[in-house]
Design brief:
globular; about 60 residues; Ubiquitin-like (UB roll); mainly beta; binds FE2/S2 (inorganic) cluster; 3-stranded antiparallel beta sheet
Length: about 60
């Protein structure tokens, strides 16, 4: 959901964190990477399976 409360449609294919279609750049905040623990330091996330770890997560959508 956008900060203004509107929803966005994001292209997803596998919805399991494996295909990379939904890979999104993290602009601010911290993600909980549910697809791969090794991504903790990366600035992208698979939004089909990962979630916000910090109170606010800003994505480049
Ligand atoms: S839809 Fe495939 S990784 Fe997210």
């Amino acid at each position: 959901m956008r900060s203004d409360g509107r929803h966005l449609n994001v292209e997803c294919m596998c919805r399991e964190g494996t295909c990379g279609t939904c890979e999104t750049t993290i602009l601010a905040g911290e993600a909980e990477h549910l697809d791969d623990d090794e991504k903790m330091e990366q600035k992208t996330m698979m939004i089909c399976v990962s979630r916000a770890k910090s109170p606010e997560l800003v994505l480049d959508l």
